[in-house]
Design a protein that fits this description.
Elements: H1 3-21, H2 26-30, E1 47-50, E2 58-65, E3 68-73, E4 76-83, E5 88-98, E6 101-106, E7 111-115, E8 120-125, E9 131-137, E10 147-153, E11 158-163, E12 177-183, E13 188-189, E14 195-197, H3 199-207, E15 222-228, E16 235-241, E17 244-248, E18 254-259, E19 268-273, E20 279-283, E21 291-295
Antiparallel strand pairs: 1-21, 2-3, 3-4, 4-5, 6-7, 7-8, 8-9, 10-11, 11-12, 12-13, 12-14, 15-16, 16-17, 17-18, 19-20, 20-21
Length: 298
């Protein structure tokens, strides 16, 4: 090959190759967390717990008692009490038959389960670890809302419900994905959304902190789990579709955005915190055992 062509090829490779390598990766695209929220290394879990096959499709969890994580799977109305220290299921209770159960929350005593069609179950556990009482509440949310996340807010003594799909209640249109409070006193969903998170909100947040252009259609956020941090009092919301974690304040304002590595979390569905701030995220097994990853709080 003539020298002139070799020089031209080298120059072309340097110019365009460097441009290609300097483009932001998917991780860089969605990653911006202020220093006060850099408490977890989501690339390096401190522990991994493989669950029995009965929890292959683990869909929600809540920290129940010291060392005990309450778990549900999306096809059967059972709560499994998993001891992450002994790595064993210590107890199982049935609250309902077959269904599509997606969210689990605890107020420290009672458990609450959200079905995808908007039904909420209150479960009281007896002194011997058996079911003492179960109450089912039908809400204004419907199947098309596709409820996926549930968390207890002790400040308000309410449950916050996350909708994965349709955001409206009784025809009242909403933008983005909506989050509604369920009042534990009157046992009803508050029809005014607590807050909404739209693609525009995420785009606005990212563009306030990034100086490069990106394809906005790559932002795909459908909540699959939500938890309230016991120390900083912020919501941590995960999305299996979009592989993203958002940190928001109580008003739903985005304060941080972290990508979830699909190699670590194939289908992240559940999230909860221990009282000391340690973070647990669960993933369905996708044909294998489901599992929980633990991330110690720094």
């Amino acid at each position: 090959m003539p020298k002139a062509k070799i020089y031209l090829l080298v120059a072309w490779t340097f110019m365009f190759g460097c441009q290609h390598n300097s483009r932001p990766t998917a991780e860089a695209l969605f990653h911006f967390v202020p220093q006060q929220f850099k408490q977890y290394n989501l690339q390096k879990p401190d522990a991994k717990y493989f669950l029995p096959y009965v929890l292959e499709e683990i869909s929600g969890m809540a920290y129940y008692q010291p060392g005990i994580i309450a778990c549900i799977q999306d096809e059967d109305g059972k709560v499994f009490f998993y001891n992450h220290k002994t790595r064993e299921i210590e107890n199982t209770v049935r609250f309902e038959g077959a269904g599509d159960y997606e969210g689990l929350a605890s107020d420290g005593e009672k458990l609450y389960v959200a079905e995808s069609n908007g039904h909420i179950y209150k479960i009281e556990i007896g002194s011997h670890g058996d079911i003492h009482k179960v109450k089912k509440y039908k809400t204004a949310l419907k199947k098309q809302n596709d409820v996926e996340g549930l968390v207890y807010d002790p400040t308000l003594d309410k449950l916050l419900v996350a909708c994965k799909d349709e955001s409206s209640i009784e025809g009242k249109k909403q933008k983005g994905r909506s989050f509604y409070y369920f009042d534990l006193e009157d046992k009803k969903i508050e029809k005014k959304a607590a807050f909404n998170i739209s693609r525009h909100d995420i785009k606005k947040y990212l563009e306030a902190h990034k100086d490069f252009e990106y394809e906005v259609n790559r932002i795909n956020f459908k909540p699959s789990g939500i938890a309230l941090h016991p120390i900083n009092d912020h919501f941590y919301i995960i999305a299996s579709i979009g592989k993203l974690m958002l940190i928001t304040d109580k008003q739903g304002t985005i304060k941080g955005s972290i990508p979830l590595d699909p190699r670590l979390l194939g289908q992240p569905e559940g999230i909860c915190f221990a009282p000391n701030g340690d973070l647990f995220i669960s993933s369905e097994g996708q044909g294998d055992k489901g599992y929980i990853l633990k991330f110690n709080m720094n």
